[in-house]
Every structure is written in C-alpha cells, then in structure tokens.
Amino acid sequence: NGGVSDAKNLRVKLVLLGDSGVGKSCIVLRFVRGQFDPTSKVTVGASFLSQTIALQDSTTVKFEIWDTAGQERYAALAPLYYRGAAVAVVVYDITSPDSFAKAQYWVKELQKHGSPDIVMALVGNKADLNEKREVPVQDGIDYAEKNGMFFIETSAKTADNINQLFEEIAKRLP
Ligand code: GTP
Ligand code: MG
After folding, report:
1. Quick check: pTM over 0.80?
2. Which residues does ligand 1 sit against, CB inside 6 Å?
3. 84 pLDDT exceeds 60?
4. For residue 3, how far is its CA from the centre of ligand 2 (angstroms)?
5. How far does residue 100's CA lie from ligand 1's centre (Å)?
6. Shortest-distance Cα residue to atom 23 of ligand 1
7. In this predicted structure, what is the pLDDT of residue 107?
8. What is the pLDDT of residue 56?
9. Which atom of ligand 1 is nearest to the CA of 36?
10. Which 3-state string (H, E, C) describes the chain?
11. Which atom of ligand 1 lies at the shortest distance from residue 70's CA?
C-alpha cells in the first residue's frame, strides 16, 4: 500500500516549565518561527503557540505549546497548564545553578501532580555560553536518568538541538 495507510496525525499538549530567564520563550520562538530575540520580554501568565512536525514514517505531530511564566508570582498558575499535558519540557540555564535547582523542583511537582504517563524532557539551555557554564553536563545527564527523563542541551540563540528536542519528544510519545 506504499505505506500511505500508516500515516498518523497526533495532537500533543506540551508545557514548558522553568525559572524566569532560562529561555523558554526563546526556545519556542526558535522552534515555531526560526527566530531569536535577544531582547525577549518576560512572559506574563502564559502564552500559546502551535507547531506541526513530520516524522520519517509520515506521522505528523502537532505540538500545542503552553509557554509558562517563570517568575515566582506566576507559580500558582502552573497546574492550569501542566494538568492534562502529555509532555513537560523542564528548562534550566547551564550558567545558573539556581535554575537547575528550580528545574528539579518542577520535576518533583510534575511527579506528584502531573499525568502518570507524562513524557518529561530536561533541557539545559544557553549551551552557546559554555565559557560561563556552571552546571556540568553530567549533572543534567545523571538527574534526567534517575528520573526517567530525556535530556538534551540546547541553544535558542544558535538553534543548536532545538529541532532535535522536539523530534526526540515525538519519538517518545506513547
Ligand atoms: P520567563 O518568561 O520570565 O519565564 O523567561 P523565559 O524562560 O521565557 O526566558 P526568555 O526566553 O525570555 O529569555 C531570557 C533571556 O535569555 C533573553 O535575554 C534571551 O535573549 C536570552 N536567551 C534565551 N535563550 C538563549 C540562548 O540559548 N543563549 C543565549 N546566549 N541567550 C539566550
Ligand atoms: Mg517566557
């Protein structure tokens, strides 16, 4: 049948969580529009964008992306966005140990209150700032492995690993 009948179209609710300033909105802007904004403004509440990708086997995956606000004053809103999410992307900044600690807080929160079958990714962003790195790559790898998460380092600035992040998530969908 030429494989045509194998085509699947998936729709996936994805939430991004992480400290303010780690680059969540820039990751989404890079993925959806192929752009980078060095003067990106803090997100207020949350913002929504969607993007569809095609996989090798002609499956398409439409990501419905909730980009949450990382500032502490919005923390109480997070459950509105991660509840019912099939995928959670927890982001930290490789130059900021505080943001790595905050990422671990979000992972615990998701383990307690997220969907039991949620697919979680841990993302160390700003990989272009390697000379200012304060979170060793191995710390990210180890934490992700212990918690059954997919791990990747990205740069929204250079686009490094941004498409790979979403492709790897798509491959891990149930
Ligand atoms: P909140 O909306 O407050 O939660 O923050 P956020 O996580 O959405 O951060 P945002 O994407 O707005 O980025 C914050 C700052 O980091 C901006 O000045 C970006 O230009 C910068 N930034 C984001 N990603 C990268 C990156 O990969 N490399 C570098 N060098 N800077 C980045
Ligand atoms: Mg933002």
Report:
1. yes
2. 18, 20-26, 37-38, 40, 42-43, 69-71, 125-126, 128-129, 155-157
3. yes
4. 40
5. 15
6. 23
7. 98
8. 85
9. 20
10. CCCHHHCCEEEEEEEEECCCCCCHHHHHHHHHHCCCCCCCCCCCCEEEEEEEEECCCCCEEEEEEEEECCCHHHHHHHHHHHCCCCEEEEEEECCCHHHHHHHHHHHHHHHHHCCCCCEEEEEEECHHHHHHCCCCHHHHHHHHHHCCCEEEECCCCCCCCHHHHHHHHHHCCC
11. 4
pLDDT tens digits, one per residue of 17-51: 999 999 999 999 999 999 999 999 999 999 999 99
Query: What tens digit of pLDDT does each residue of 52-68 get?
Result: 999 988 899 999 999 99
ipTM confidence score:
0.99
The ligand 1 atom at the shortest distance from the C-alpha of residue 74 is 4
Separation of CA 30 and ligand 1 centre (Å): 11
